[in-house]
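Journal club side-thread
Mid-discussion, someone asked how the predicted structure for our own chain would compare to the paper's figures. Pasting it here so we can look after the session.
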Amino acid sequence: MSSVSRRRGTATAVQVLSTFVLTAGLTAAPQALTGGTPASAADCTTYSVPTYVFEPATSNNVASKRTLHKYMQWGPQSADADLLDTLYTATLPMTSKVFTGGGNGIIYEATIGGQVKAYKDNTATGGSLLTPVKTYSFNWSSAKRILTNGQWILVVASDGTMDVYKQSSPTTGDGTITQVATDMKSSITTALANADDAWMVNSAVQWLKDGTIQQTVVLPIGTSFKLWGTTDIATGVDAAQAWSPGGGAISTQSVTSDPDTTGQIRSFTTGPWTSVDDDIRSGVVGEIMADAGPCLTDPDPEIAPYFGTPPDETGGEAATDPADDTAPAPTRTVTGKFTLGNGNAAPGLPVTVMASDTDPDATGQVTEPVLGTATTAADGSWSLTLPSTLPAAVQKAVDDNNGVLNIQATATGTTATSGVQMLGVDALSTVLNAPATPSAVTAAADGDHTVKLAPNTLTSTSQDTYAASTEPQTFAAQIATNPMATDTDTPLWQSDNSTLAASYNPYLVNGKDVSAETVNPPITPMDSGTCSDLKFKDSSSTKYTVVGEAHAGWDAKATFEYESSMSSSFDIAVKSSGNWSIGGTKELSGSTGVSVGYANKGPHYAHQYKVPVEYIKYKHQHICSGTVRSTWYTIEASRYKAPSGGAVGAVGKDVSSKDGSANFDRSPKANRNYVNPGNTLQLSHGKSVKFGNAVSAFGVSLGAKTGYDSNHKQKIVAGDRSGKHWIWGKNGSISSGHAGVFYSK
């Protein structure tokens, strides 16, 4: 059913053409012609159908590759439908076209060079997804699409003409492919050419056009070939693509402009048209095709879905909640470390420690409250004990943030050889007021705050270069618009108007790498006299940001709760030269006044969850005796802020690619636990994993993580089916308190 290309056949099949008949307009096909159905239901054992996605190209370069990704559609006509990610992929040229069908694991590739390559999918036995079988000399490089049920291959041109071929060995793919008709045209072939999608299943050819699914029946009689009749299967179908995993079942894929909802898979049965599952999973994009066999049956409801062979479920313990977290003791001492660009110590540099979060609504110049100064030691470390009494505005910010103080520490200097001004900016948090909830220290508890100095080439007249028109070209935008959630760490360096080359070096100034140069303190009297630190709000924007996720596999329900207050830390971005770097984290623990999340979703459900956070871009300046000495920008999370008319929270991307038997097999046994039938387990201690690329703000991708407590948790409820409901933590077992997030089989 994928779109393909081919070149018109020659006139060598004219004699066969005289016996080829296309009959259109008939409303029914003889029952005896449906074909491919076993003698009895007991003969059918197919309940899991290989389903392939030829994913979109990621480059405009014609020499680049596209990924063929294998899934298994489990129980496509049952209430336990699922789309298992097998984790098997292969790459093919982006100019190639792929098609499959017949239920024999044979995949064909039509190349732009005039070949048709047959492969065998051997992944079920641990082999390759594309095991070469045979190469045929057919040039189908100008066809609109190619359809097959294993035996018959229909090559449809964009003008509605169709060539027909027959594979003598459909079960192995290494037989003789014989052309039996050429350049045939009728209302049916024209409909196939103009369809939104088309596919074959057994003796039926089906197609989707403008929300209507129709079918015709293949009727081979001797050497002749007919398409018998046109029958409506369904109307009003909201789908961009459709396919049949087997007789009596159809699945669809819909697309939207929202990457969090696009690529949604639904399943239906036919005769009559009935919805089985309207949300199997989302985020699956590309050309989708099923290796549809002759029949389908429902899986055993007491068996969890799996790919290949049932996974090893030996060992493991029932999941139990970890011990309660201990609220951190308040401290007024903050520490950090500044290094050169190459990681060596940067001693003797002045450090200024300032409070964040004051006057978030100010639109003009704001003087940043300086809480103290320090000097880096021989190893680059610094330490400061904060004053016992804070300025009123700072204390209010602490009180509003559940006892947590967010600060920024800056260090400045000049390289000894090249005279390049350097700047380091570290964002960190500390708990000042007791009692604070344990979840309010997701950032403060991380400890290590080692920051590399970077060139500070911005001047007092420098203007920020961000433009909405170039944001789609950035790494952040590419991640945000990708329907599949990535597990990639947020890059340290990013551009807000393009993607950075892999060889990008932020320490290259005027053609010289200054990363290893010794950095001296600012030259006296450069910073003598009265100094102050000012910031100006450049712009602000509310962005929905990932703060958690929940997973439910077979016979389970998932819940994610984010109630009453924030409990998350967010990366901040710093720009002191041409591009942005990640410069520490900021803790937001203030009240939201709302309870958000999702509850009892499943089975086979896993999504991220997002809340609206206001991000502010500031321009900062360090001024001494009326002269600007340093200029830099930051992008900072400011507070929970639902936009006018906007949602208080939103379901994010589908993350069920982390679940299932294939991922369970690869997980460390030490991280596994099970939930007994009818029981509930919740992750309400410790902190989540860091969600890389949790948000795109002003063209920069930032990460986030969440502290778990009674109001912020991931939860799973196991159903009553027999057997163990397995879960596993990403970073450890549930009872260890270090799981971060848990997945479900």
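Post-session note: The helical segments are 14-17, 187-194, 392-400, 475-480, 661-666.
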